Backbone:
């Protein structure tokens, strides 16, 4: 188990972000032939391959509200399951489902307790016809944690549901690869205090690439997003991005991906937090993954993007994030891991100027974090994981820095 530090490394421009999450969901392994045994060892339901694990977790956090002074500690208990289903419905179609669903219970601040669904949860149905692949998908997450959002401080909980449903068409004539996807996203904040975040978006994504080898290609990516808010109409916007990408398998044990380019966000109102009604920015993404030895691997990733704002009246967040993880198989039964990250962001932050008036002031912030972990599989089915995480936030605004420490213990059973 590696503790989650900061936000997901895949939060690019919203349409591009959805496309990259889908890449991971549908490219874990190729579909199996109909009637064949499931590829993965373990339990199965008839022709359906099944992976299932249950877990119990306990953690102690010393600053659940991300406060600069007088932090509030709490003990958090959690129970949940990780489920994976893989079914080759026909010779040319497959259905795949994966999720992690759990319930967390705060012992002191019980109002923050509730269900959580991990952001990589997805249902995909894929149909293949010669060099044409059609994928229908639904990506779902539900979270209430705030430490994953670098822009937030002085907040205890933000319950939110994020669901994206859509379709992708991929065509691979020869060495060319052409992809197009459309999806609809719904974001719902459960708390009335955050209802200004409720919105719906339409995503369009295009990708054209040339394959130099089976695992190396380069090309162009373009995305467009149209967003309408339920309450705060000043935040309504449409955004576009365009840039090159490259995926390079340098060695069997070394892979590099890179992408980047300009982005433009056009707000319906010039009062949406930008200096004008148009925000000119750029996006950047890169990842290096290397298997150093059969027992040691590491990953370095960098992202820079524009995200929707999280505070009332503030429409955007610009953030640069770097992360590094290393995983080491100490023995056949023991593993160790380490995660490091650094974030640097800026956003318009609302300040109360009068009883019914907010003004936006610029905030710049930096966050640093580390998280070592140790895992022990003491039987074929049971495993125990211990982890620690430290996060340190610095801000140009008074009262918006904090330090957070957490320790966790998780017992898992895999079928």
Residues:
């Amino acid at each position: 188990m590696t503790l989650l530090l900061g936000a997901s490394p895949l939060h690019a421009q919203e349409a591009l972000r959805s496309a990259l999450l889908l890449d991971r969901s549908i490219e874990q392994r190729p579909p199996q032939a109909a009637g064949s045994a499931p590829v993965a060892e373990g339990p199965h339901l008839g022709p359906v391959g099944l992976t299932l694990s249950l877990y119990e977790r306990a953690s102690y956090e010393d600053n659940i509200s991300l406060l600069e002074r007088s932090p509030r500690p709490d003990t958090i208990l959690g129970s949940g399951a990780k489920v994976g289903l893989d079914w080759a419905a026909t010779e040319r179609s497959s259905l795949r489902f994966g999720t992690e669903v759990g319930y967390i219970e705060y012992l002191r601040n019980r109002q923050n307790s509730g269900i959580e669904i991990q952001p990589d949860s997805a249902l995909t149905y894929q149909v293949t016809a010669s060099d044409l692949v059609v994928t229908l998908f639904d990506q779902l997450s539900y979270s209430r944690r705030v430490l994953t959002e670098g822009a937030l401080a002085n907040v205890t909980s933000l319950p939110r549901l994020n669901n994206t449903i859509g379709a992708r068409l991929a065509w691979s004539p020869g060495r060319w690869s052409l992809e197009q996807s459309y999806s609809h996203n719904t974001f719902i904040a459960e708390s009335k205090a955050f209802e200004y975040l409720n919105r719906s978006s339409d995503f369009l994504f295009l990708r054209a690439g040339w394959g130099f080898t089976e695992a190396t290609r380069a090309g162009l990516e373009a995305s467009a997003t149209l967003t309408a808010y339920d309450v705060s109409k000043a935040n309504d916007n449409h955004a576009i991005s365009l840039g090159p990408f490259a995926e390079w398998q340098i060695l069997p044990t070394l892979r590099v991906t890179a992408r980047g380019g300009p982005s433009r966000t056009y707000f319906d109102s010039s009062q949406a937090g930008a200096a004008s009604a148009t925000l000119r920015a750029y996006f950047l993404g890169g990842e290096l993954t290397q298997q150093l030895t059969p027992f040691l691997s590491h990953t370095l990733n960098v992202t820079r993007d524009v995200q929707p704002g999280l505070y009332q009246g503030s429409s955007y967040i610009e953030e640069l994030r770097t992360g590094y993880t290393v995983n080491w198989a100490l023995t056949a039964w023991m593993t160790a891991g380490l995660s490091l990250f650094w974030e640097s962001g800026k956003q318009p932050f609302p300040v109360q100027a009068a009883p019914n008036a907010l003004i936006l002031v610029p905030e710049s912030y930096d966050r640093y974090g580390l998280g070592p972990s140790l895992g022990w599989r003491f039987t074929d089915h049971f495993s125990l994981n211990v982890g620690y995480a430290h996060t340190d936030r610095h801000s140009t605004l008074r009262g918006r820095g904090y330090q957070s420490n957490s320790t966790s213990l998780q017992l898992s059973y895999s079928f």
Remarks:
- The chain has one domain: 14-414.
- Residues 7 and 148 are 4 Å apart (CA to CA).
- The helical segments are 14-26.
